[in-house]
Amino acid sequence: MNKDSLFETIEKHKDNWIQISRYIWENPELGNEEHKAMEVLTEELRNHGFDVETNIADLKTAFIAKFRSDKHGPTLGYFAEYDALPEIGHACGHNLIGMMSTGAAIALKEAVAEFGGEVIVFGTPAEETNGAKVIFADKGLLDGLDAALMVHPSGVHERSGSSMAMEAVQFDFYGKPAHAAASPDEGVNALEGVIQTFNLINSLRQHLPDDVRIHGIITNGGDVVNVVPARAQAQFYVRANEKHVLEETSAKVKRCVEAAALATGCEFKISNHELGYDNLTTNETLSELYCQNLIALGVVPEEILKDQDHGSLDMGNVSQVAPAIHPYIKMDDCPYSGHTEGFRDAAGDSRGFEAMILGAKTLVATGYDLLTNPAYVKEIKEEFERTVARKNV
């Protein structure tokens, strides 16, 4: 058995897998509501001999599918995403990611049976909001992984790099209602607490590192114009390239809330409206192996970019507990950024499907290298251990 035989498996099932991806694209589902996507992916995995468990960690649309050899070998994890965005649908290409990882695992099954080890597909809902990978990592469901891999569609090829750590914070202000014209002096304006929070955060920006991003919205500003708002709410994302910088920045932002409440006489509550994400720490050994396979499949090295700007990913939490990569695969003729209609359209036609098949082949080729060359696994794990040791200093 060699890589070409695994590629032949992908080609054999290509038309069916494109149909599955198109079905997911045509039936977009929000995070933790992806019942159709989960069902079609798990059905395909069961049809190919995987043991599938659903409702993982009390998440109804999460799943774990395993194929294990009776021979010793590495444990490899492919990560599937399949949630869509509100109103705009699959404008981040998760319909491609879900089938790409599933297809790669199915193709790799033959090599696992021959050489040993285990391949696992982690079906992780809600990447756009409460990313299930955070929960999977926290609950120890990723323990024992020798490598964690996934590929994201894009308008370019890109090496796995970094992502920003993120905290999703919510600020609720509580005041006192009063008639806004007849007796405003009797009221305490909760909306003013929110507004002053925005003002104080804007004043804070000049004293923050360049990599920090803070952005928020007012989700509740009162009920009617002629009543002093007794309750107001704002939600923010606070981001930074490193977790420790994020923690320091979040503490400063929360002091802005305390100051705004003190100035306006409001009570306040600080909470999290979504799960936070750790920054992605790419395993460079694993990343280089992926890139070499991408080049072997015909991509010109100069086309593989690096150090592009990205937001926050729950794959960052995976990278804290296992050697991980999150590269990007090019959809031809797609100059659009993610979360746009143009990107969504590309993810649902031949541009996206061709990228999906190339990504699946690159993933399965990388998995084959790990199964057949223990030295790669050793080097990957040693790099991961060095990274963990540096963080703990």
From TrEMBL:
CDD domains: M20_ACY1L2-like. Residues 170-262 form the Peptidase M20 dimerisation domain. It holds the Pfam family M20_dimer. InterPro entries: Amidohydrolase (IPR017439), Bact_exopeptidase_dim_dom (IPR036264), Peptidase_M20/M20A_hydrolases (IPR052030), Peptidase_M20_dimer (IPR011650), Xaa-Arg_dipeptidase (IPR017144). Belongs to the peptidase M20A family. This is Peptidase M20 domain-containing protein 2. It comes from Halalkalibacter alkalisediminis.
